[in-house]
Amino acid sequence: MAERVAHRDAATALAGKLKAAGYTYVDIDSGWNASLSWVFHTDVNGIPDPDPVRFPSGIPALASYVHGLGLKLGLYAVTGLEKEVYDKNAPILGTSCHAQDIAYRPLTPSNGWGGNWKVDFTNPCAQKYYDSIAARFASWGVDFVKVDGTTADNVADIKAWSAAIDHSRRPMWLTAGAWPVPRSIGPALAPYANGVRVDTDVECYCETVSTWDSSVKARWADLPDWLGVFGPQYRPDLDSMPIGNNTGSGIQDGISDVERQSVMTFWSMASSPLYVGGDIWFLDASAVSILTNPEVIVVDQTGSYPARVTGGNLQVWRKQAPDGRWYAAVYDLGATPADITVDLGTPGARLVRDVVARRDLGRFRGSWTASAVPPHGSRLIRIG
């Protein structure tokens, strides 16, 4: 029952409510290979195994179900060598090595929790160990891997994961995760990761998924430090969007519809992967409307990155799409409604379109003003 409710029902809900708009991944986060007491499972070769209580049918059966809906499946991993694998000195597939042979000496804690051992990548068996995990994931039908706990000491781990995925011959999206990944290693990860977490967890770890102050609004302060790092195959990961349910049964988002729209707009201006947090089974109508707006999704899928024109509480951001069109977003991060003006950038009258409302606003010379933007609210326009 736990497997059906937590994962198959989520996949069914995603397929029915969001797939048509382009949402295709069902990503299983931390705990899939651990008991409810956080006792981790690995097989004789130290390869992660699903918890038999949560996944009585195994990952291949779940992947088959997900793929049958036209979706893709993601799994979670962490940097470093699991101490459970080290303690049992698991033999590494295809080698004469064991787990303790690939542990860095002296034993050094690694990853964001310090919970795993640092790996000695000068030993070729270390890559073979990562290869064995990626090969198992590939055999199960996995399409996405989030490697969490990435510190400044873990660039080699992400490089090894990238090589292992290549060796598996199955395409998998690779995201380097942390709370956040240190900005100092952002450029070093670019050849290996498809995405990189640039911010703290969006969750508040309270009675709701999130709140505006904990920690939705942090994204506006933190993303600018990362701009200039990204490219066509290397995206800023802003964590999941708390846009799921704030009206009915199940866990609540903790943010209003105005704040939800600002989240969707900000993620899309950043060309961040659009992940949905919360319990998708209870996705409400306003969430579906916000998440599936085709003109906003186009802004995300341009793959281009914004610049912050003005900071503070009344912010203006701009970016140019590959087709030459400009988009601008305004955000009121303050406590009272405000008018926010956008410089349209070129002489002559420019057509302004409200992308969220999906309607033309008319032609404007020099500038356009978003009137009475509510607290925590936003407007998103296309220029020309």
UniProtKB/TrEMBL annotation:
The keyword Metal-binding does not apply. One of its GO terms (biological process) is carbohydrate metabolic process. Residues 312-383 form the Alpha galactosidase C-terminal domain. It holds the Pfam family Melibiase_2. GO terms for molecular function: alpha-galactosidase activity. Keywords: Disulfide bond, Glycosidase, Hydrolase, Signal. It catalyses: Hydrolysis of terminal, non-reducing alpha-D-galactose residues in alpha-D-galactosides, including galactose oligosaccharides, galactomannans and galactolipids. The keyword Transmembrane does not apply. Its EC number is 3.2.1.22. InterPro entries: Aldolase_TIM, GH, Glyco_hydro_27, Glyco_hydro_b, Melibiase_C. PANTHER family: ALPHA-GALACTOSIDASE, ALPHA-GALACTOSIDASE/ALPHA-N-ACETYLGALACTOSAMINIDASE. Belongs to the glycosyl hydrolase 27 family. This is Alpha-galactosidase.
